[in-house]
Each structure stands twice: as structure tokens, then as C-alpha cells.
Amino acid sequence: MSARGSRPRRLRPVGCLVALAVVALIVVVVILLWFLLAGRLRVPEPGPEPPPKPPISQPATCPDVQMISVPGTWESNSTDDPHNPAANPLSLMLNISGPIQQQFPAERVDVYTVPYVAQFSNPIAIPPDGQESYNNSRSEGTQRMVDMMTERSRECPLTTYVIAGFSQGAVIAGDVAAQIGAGKGPVPADRVLGVTLIADGRRTLDTGPGRAIPIGTPPPGVGAEVALAGLKVPGITMTGPRDGFGALADRTYTICAPGDMICDSPPQALNPVNWIPSVLALVRAVGNPVHALYNGYVVDGNGTTATQWTASWASGLIEGAPRPPHS
Question: Is 80 a catalytic site residue?
Fold first, then answer.
């Protein structure tokens, strides 16, 4: 006989285990939803094969040159007018695209500013900051750029291209340029006159074959995506260095100001294992003062700033670009 007032044993541990299992399941579901809602990084499929023999002329509506300008974080939105961007009047890229539009007639060059959400949500902000994730923003910008170039190439097979981007826009422009250089992009490599990337988050210190050419004295750090290679948290996928620019390497340029952690992060210093401090450092880097001052960052002994150099470089390419026949 059991003693009077005795209670069944083993029930309390079982109840605790059930409660812990429920809590664990809830945590797993929350994390999965966090990743799903923040979005994954989407990479466009390889572009179409170029025609075996290009035509001898193109429609009269086609520009001789197509300039693609890709703004940085918080400098665009998904509904901005690509030919008259007004989402952010202080956008750094307007210091480059504006002078080009003023210098050349529309039939010589069409300037297209890629409209995309251009945001960078802090995934650990409480309460949530209400912004789109970096993965979703970068994916949208890349797809918009690829779609535009694909359609332009289809309509205007003899048009040539000048590509420039800043910050998140430099990552996007650089990724598309790398695809083109590998023969997998939306246009053939011989149609691209040149590429300039300002504050590229995937910048490396490599200067060998396939790598971009530095303008100004290159700082000792690397892009944040290289320093944080392998970091993957909800909405933020750090993809590390590119494989190179292939056929475009001899006409791809990179500009990075010392102290700008987007492109000048200490190698291995932002340890992906310590992902919370790394994410916080990355979010702070997007808004650091140095990152916002490329309009005054001098890149040569003549006092030329990064934006002046890029505008002059683009102007020179457009001046010397082919003038295809129109029909």
C-alpha cells in the first residue's frame, strides 16, 4: 500500500519535457519565419545567348550608348523614375549621371538610373525598423538592372554600355558586370565600354588578372561582404569576394575611401561567428560619415574627387563610343 497523501511520481518531469518541447518548436518556427519573411538572396539566371551575327543597323529610337547608374542604400525606391530620379535629391550618383545628361543629347546617351527599394533593414532591431531586407533590396536591384539591359540589348543590339554604381548599387553593378565578363550576362562583354564601382562591398585587395583597377590609393581593408564572408542571418547574406570580372577586368575600376567600412573593413576582423556584433557593425557602416563623402573624396594629385573622376571617365567613354547606323 502507498502511504496516505503520496503523489504520483514522474508526472512532473514528463510535463516539463513537454513544455520544453513546445517552447523549442515555437523557437524553431519563429526562426524559420524570420528567415522566410526577410527573404533570401536571388541571383538572376545567365543571360540569353547573343545572336551569331549582329545586324548592321538598329532602330532610330536606340541611343548610341546606354549608361546604367545604380544608386546606393536609401538613394532610390522601387517606383522612382529611371530617367528623372527624384527619390533622393542628394543621391551621390546624381553627381555623375546629372553632368552626363547635361553634356550629351538623348540620342547619343540614355542615362537609366536603376529604381529599386535600396534599403538595409537591421534584422535584430526591436521594434522592427520597417525597412526591406538587404537580400530583398539587392535582389530587386539586380533583377531590375538585368531586365533593363536584356530588353535594351534585344531592341538595340549595337548600343554600348557604361556602368557605374555606389555602395549597395556598386555591389549590384559589380555582380552584373562579373556575370557579363564571364559570358553569362544580359549583354555581350564587347558591348560594355567600362564599369566603375564606388564603395563596393565586395572589393578585394587582389590586383591580379580578373580584378578591378583601383583609382586613388587603395586602403588596406576589404569589402564588408568579404570580411564577413559566410555570414547568413535573416535578410542578410554576405557572399564574399567575386571570382573576378573576366573579360571586363581591363575596364573595371574601383574607388574606396580609407575608413569606409563598406569597402575598407579589416580582413577577418568582423568575425561571422559573433554574428550580432558583426551585424551591428555592418548596419553602422552603411551610415558612417566617410561613406557619405565621396563627392569630396580626392582620388588624384589634381584634386579630382571620386564623383568628378567617374563623370569624366564616363564622358570620355561616351565621346569615343561607336556611332552605329540607324534605320
Answer: no
H, E, C per residue of the chain:
CCCCCCCCCCHHHHHHHHHHHHHHHHHHHHHHHHHHHHCCCCCCCCCCCCCCCCCCCECCCCCCEEEEEECCCCCCCCCCCCCCCCCCCCCCCHHHHHHHHHHCCCCCEEEEECCCCCCCCCCCCCCCCCCCCHHHHHHHHHHHHHHHHHHHHHHCCCCEEEEEEECHHHHHHHHHHHHHHCCCCCCCHHHEEEEEEECCCCCCCCCCCCCCEECCCCCCCECHHHHCCCCEECCEECCCCCCCCHHHHHHEEEECCCCCCCCCECCCCCCCCCHHHHHHHHHHHHCCHHHHCCCCCECCCCCCEHHHHHHHHHHHHHHHCCCCCEC
**Is 167 designated active site?**
yes
What is the number of domains present in the chain? 1
Q: Kindly name the residue from 260, 264, 265, 278 that is annotated as catalytic.
A: 260
- Walking along the chain (327 residues) 10 residues at a time, the average pLDDT comes out as 50 63 55 52 69 84 98 97 97 98 97 96 74 94 98 97 98 98 96 98 91 95 90 87 97 96 82 69 74 95 98 98 95
Catalytic residue among 76, 91, 167, 265: 167
Q: Give the domain CATH number at 189.
A: 3.40.50.1820
Asked whether residue 6 is domain-assigned, the answer is no
Catalytic (active site) residue 291: yes
